[in-house]
Each structure stands twice: as C-alpha cells, then as structure tokens.
Amino acid sequence: QPCCAKDGNDSKDFDDAVYAERTLNGYKLYVHIADVSEYVTKGSYCDRTAYKRGFSFYYGDNVQPMLPESLSNGACSLNENEDKLTLTAEMEVSGGRVINGFVKKSIIRSVKRMTYEAVSQVLDGNDVAGYTQSLTQTLKVLDDLSAELKRERDNDGNIDFDLAEVKFSFDGNKVVDMKKAERTRAHAIIEECMIAANEFVAQMYGDGSCFIFRSHRPPSSEKIERLNDFLLACGLKPLPQQPTSKDVANLLSATSDDKKECVSSITLRSMSKAEYSPTDCEHFGLASKHYCHFTSPIRRYTDLVVHRIIKASLCGEPSDMNLTEVTDICTHCNEREKKIVDAEREINDLYTMDYMYDKVGEIYDGTISGVSEWGVYVKIACGAEGLIKAERIGGKTKFDERSMTMKTHAGTYRIGDKIKVKLTQVSYNGLDFELCR
Questions:
Q1: Beta bridge partners of residue 378, listed in sequence order
Q2: 152-169 burial code (b ≥16 CB/10 A, e <16)
Q3: Distance, CA of 82 to CA of 7 (rounded, Å)
Q4: What is the DSSP letter of 216?
Q5: What is the pairing mode between strands 112-115 and 4-7?
Q6: The whole model's pTM is what?
Q7: CA 77, CA 33: separation in Å to the nearest integer?
Q8: Per-residue pLDDT for the chain (437 aa), expressed as one digit of tens each?
Q9: In the chain, N or C: fewer CB atoms in 10 Å?
Q10: How far apart are CA 355 and CA 169, in angstroms?
C-alpha cells in the first residue's frame, strides 16, 4: 500500500503515516504509528528520561526531543523507503463514521515523505515533482474521506475555534518574519485521520483495568456566565448555563466573520483545559464520547504508555501497568504540559518582540482582542498583540468587567472593534501601542 508520512517542510521526525482506499460501503483507513515501545522498554534509562520530559518541546525552529535523536529522527521515524515497526489502526468507515476495525502490529515502508505544502498543491490540481498518479489518487481518496469524517464530527457538535497559530521565520537567530500559519486541506486530512484513530483506540481498549484517556470536561457555569455577559455585549445570543458542544459550535458558526476570531478566542478561554486522565470522560471540544492520545509516541509519553497497554493486549498478556501508576503518569504529564505551554507562550512573546523591535513608529490596522482595567489589547495582522494603556487613550476611562468594554468621552471600545494603532515601544513587558485618531 502506498502509505505516506506527511508533515511540514521543516519536520525531522515522522511518527505517523496514512493510507485509504474506497470500498463498497465507504472506505478502509489505515493509520500507521511508529512502534516506539519496541525500542523504549519500561524502566530503562531512556524511558525514565522520556517520562521526566513528558513531551518533545518545540520552539521556533528548534526542538528539545523527548527521545534521543537516534530514535526520534532515526529508528522510530517513518522515513521514506525504510522498513519500520508500527502499530496500525485499520478502520472501516461508512457515512463518515468508523463502524469496525482492529489494531495490529505491523511493518510498513512509507513510499513518500510528503509535506503539507506539496500536498495542498496536488489537491489544487497542480503538478508537483515526485507525486505519481497513484499517489495523487490516494491523496484524493484521503481528501474525500477526511471531508466525510469532518462533516459527521461537525454534526455531533465538534467545536472548530479556527484560531491560526503564529509561525516565525529565522535568519540565524534573528526573527525575520512572523505570520499566521495557513491551515489547508492537507492539514485537515492528517487531523481527521488522527482523530478517528484516537477515538477508535480509546473505545476499543479503554474498558480495561487501566488506560490513559484525553479528557476535556464541559465548561463551568461560572465561566459560561462571564462568557454570556461578553456575548450579550456583542449582540450575540447567550449560551445555556450548561451548554452542549453543539451549542458552542452553533455559536461560532453564527458569528460574523469580523467578530469570529475574537469571539472564538474569548470562548476558548472560557473552556475547561484538556488533560490526561485514567477515567473515561468525554472530550467536550471534539464532541467525542471516548478519546485518547495514541498517534504520537515519539513526542508524547502518554501515547507511549497507551502503546504498551495495547501491545500487551495484542499478545494476550495482562498489562504490567496498574491504576496507581497510570494515575501518577497522568498527573505528571498534566503538570509537564502546563509548564511547556507556558514556556512556549513566553518564548513566542520574545520572538514577537525581536521581530517588532525595529518597527517602532509604524502604523497598523488592528483588532481589539481584549479589554481590562489596564487598557485595550490590540492584535495586528501578523499575529502580534500589544496594549494601549488606559492613560494613553485620553480623558477619563471606565472599564466595565461584565461587558468587557472601555468607556471614554470619545466612545466605547469593545472586543472585535477595528482600530488603527501606532507602535510606540517594544520592551520585555510587551508591545505598547497608541491610538491613531
């Protein structure tokens, strides 16, 4: 089968590959994941180090890998035209839903290392060197399949916040460009295939004595109450006090384009944080009844543990994991994940300041992304965000916490408003803007 590994131009490790074919009832989907557990044995020095790190840490164009490079970029990476050990989730899909399947140990040889950029070109009908007719046909099948999977997830209430990440470009250590990363049909293919595999594995193996789930609980009533104040101030219909995933998804789909990014951002902040749990809880954001992380054992320790549990089951052996051990792993990885997210945010702030440092005095069109007693936060097109301090707005200001607005003698400033700003200062405290009147 012409399975293919797919990632960005700058990626070095490949822990997943996919293939799909049409059947009489729909599709057969194969998701191949690197069998890291065959190389990293429980309790070994490599395993203890991976546990301590919890995750690979990506920042800028650098990475602190969870595993030694000889594994993450070598033995475990599904490199082109190399035989690799994998766990394969083979799934039958009909009407956009997985109706049957199994997981097996396997050996695959990826025929093509594909990039999102090149696949997007192929799907748009362009000729790209190295992409044969057979590969192109496989990509079209995957594209059709992912669209069906996405349609059914949306019907269930999948919440698509559609908030683009910021991508930095470097010349040596200098940031020379920053822009919002483009999300293409190629990204959607991998995203939908991975979600399908994660749901399937959680449902198939999650009823044992111990397992690691990816849990995302519904938002608290207090957060929904604050969110509704904001929604009312924006002229939008408030959510029920105990909203379903479908309620939130409908809110975002009904929001006009000029307000969508800000409403999505504020709504996301009102959601609970996803975490690892030994208890099978729903994934609110994905509208999934069962969910786990199975698809990235090179980069996440929890996935490696899930692989060990699955392989023990495939061999007909009891897992050597117990509930106490799994609970401790979940607690540790949740703590590590929070530290990594905080560190990524701080590093991205530093990269942003580096890029904007020589642009003091320039004028930008911006969108108000937040309001506080300190002033008005503004985001510009490249993704950089700065603050107009309250004392720089002019005259007496009054911050209304319920509606998240700043009232002045000249008018009211609210999230989503379009304004023109001038960059006045770049410091370790962030970017300072002033209004252009």
A1: 368, 386
A2: ebbebbbbebeeeebbbe
A3: 17
A4: B
A5: parallel
A6: 0.93
A7: 10
A8: 555 555 555 555 688 999 999 999 999 999 999 999 999 999 999 999 999 999 999 888 888 999 999 999 999 999 989 999 999 999 999 999 999 999 999 999 998 888 888 999 999 999 888 898 999 999 999 999 999 999 999 999 999 988 888 999 999 889 999 998 888 899 999 999 999 999 999 999 998 779 999 999 999 999 999 999 989 888 899 999 999 999 999 999 998 887 888 899 999 999 999 999 999 999 999 999 999 999 999 999 999 999 999 999 999 888 888 999 999 999 999 999 999 999 999 999 999 999 999 999 999 999 998 898 889 999 999 999 999 998 888 778 888 887 888 888 778 888 888 999 999 999 988 999 999 87
A9: C
A10: 10
CA 357, CA 372: separation in Å to the nearest integer? Answer: 25
CB 55 within 8 A of CB 286: no
CB 125 within 8 A of CB 98: no
pLDDT for residue 113: 85
Angle at Cα 320 formed by Cα 315 and Cα 324, nearest 5°?
145
**CA pair distance 300, 16, nearest whole angstrom:** 13
Cα–Cα distance for residue pair 167/348, rounded to 1 Å: 9
Asked whether the beta carbons of 236 and 251 are under 8 A apart, the reply is yes
Q: Measure the CA–CA gap between 124 and 188, rounded to whole angstroms.
A: 14
The Cα–Cα gap between 41 and 35 comes to: 11
Two structure tokens written together for 153: 């997830």
What's the rounded Cα separation, in Å, for the pair 286 and 164? 17
Cα separation, 294 vs 207, whole angstroms = 15
Distance CA 89, CA 303 (A): 14
Least Cα distance to 52 among 346, 340, 322, 374 occurs for 340
Full DSSP string of 344-379? HHHHHHHHHHHHHGGGTT-EEEEEEEEEETTEEEEE
Identify residue 275 by its one-letter amino acid code. E
Phi and psi angles of residue 307, each rounded to the nearest 5 degrees, phi first? -60, -40
Q: Which residue in the block uniquely carries the two structure tokens 């920042």?
A: 59
The token duo for 295 is 């698809």
Report d(CA 353, CA 342) in Å as an integer: 17
Residue 411's identity, in one-letter code, is G
